[in-house]
Design a protein that fits this description.
The complex is a heterodimer of chains A (about 110) and B (about 110). The N and C termini of chain A lie far apart (about 40 Å). Chain A is mainly beta. In chain A, the strands form two sheets. In chain A, strands 2, 4, 5, 9, 10 and 11 form a six-stranded mixed beta sheet that branches. Chain A has no helices and eleven strands. In chain A, a hairpin with a 2-residue loop joins strand 6 (about 55-60) and strand 7. With about 110 residues, chain B is an all-beta fold. In chain B, the strands form two sheets. In chain B, strands 2, 4, 5, 6, 9, 10 and 11 form a seven-stranded mixed beta sheet that branches. In chain B, strand 7 and strand 8 form a beta hairpin. Classes of the chains: A mainly beta (about 110), B mainly beta (about 110). Chains A and B meet through strand 4, strand 5, strand 9 and strand 10 of A and strand 5 and strand 10 of B.
Chain lengths: ~110, ~110
């Protein structure tokens, strides 16, 4: 079945770059997403990338997609303490002819130390 | 002017009770979803409705019954609550269900079953 994997924890110092990695299994995924969840809050869409793109940049965020390896990464430049949160990778999957839904990874908890 | 709202934000109840969680979106979207996030932060889709019709029903006990009175509302009724139902329940909406439209999440309802 479809699956999305992420490392569970990442710790960086303020001002450094953070790179959060994700692998997915459904090669027919059309869109891949990054969501951010701050403590006690809902999910906030950060950015997304269409599967025919290799890279997307949005201010401090850079998304890289390696479709051959089914690998997605999110780079946050100049990481700030306010970036501390859980980051979820998600793919939109029609695996098995299903109607299609978002499959989420387990989330990477990013801790930013001053 | 909240886009996706849920009530209540917190719900503490006894095992065996019946409870409902309400969701409303004012984005004019056609598709709405319910997700469950467990204590390990794993997020999984439960249901999805498009134009008031059920299109996704993952393996969820039939104690959970979604109801969509109109496109802007998707409520979740839970019968005979069990300890394992304790989780955060997120409502989301998108313009359609094809994955080309991003999903916007509500703030979550934190359910604790005692």
């Amino acid at each position: 079945g479809e699956d999305v994997e992420q490392s569970l924890f990442l710790s960086v110092r303020e001002g450094d770059s953070s790179v959060i990695n994700c692998t997915y299994t459904d090669s027919s995924s059309t869109y891949l997403y990054w969501y951010k969840q701050e403590p006690g809050a809902g999910l906030q869409l950060l950015t997304y990338i269409f599967s025919n793109m290799d890279m997307k940049q949005d201010q401090r965020l850079t998304v890289l997609l390696n479709k051959k390896d089914k690998h997605l990464s999110l780079r946050i430049a100049d990481t700030q303490t306010g970036d501390s949160a859980i980051y979820f990778c998600a793919e939109f999957s029609n695996y098995g002819g299903s109607q299609g839904n978002l499959i989420f990874g387990k989330g990477t908890k990013l801790s930013v130390k001053p | 002017d909240t886009a996706v709202s849920q009530t209540p934000k917190y719900l503490v109840t006894q095992m065996g009770n019946d409870k409902s969680i309400k969701c409303e979106q004012n984005l004019g979207h056609d598709t709405m979803y319910w997700y469950k996030q467990d204590s390990k932060k794993f997020l999984k889709i439960m249901f999805s409705y498009n134009n008031k019709e059920l299109i996704i029903n993952e393996t969820v006990p039939n104690r959970f019954s979604p109801k969509s009175p109109d496109k802007a509302h998707l409520n979740l009724h839970i019968n005979s609550l069990e300890l394992g139902d304790s989780a955060v329940y997120f409502c989301a909406s998108s313009q359609d269900f094809r994955g080309t439209e991003t999903q916007y999440f509500g703030p979550g309802t934190r359910l604790l079953v005692l």
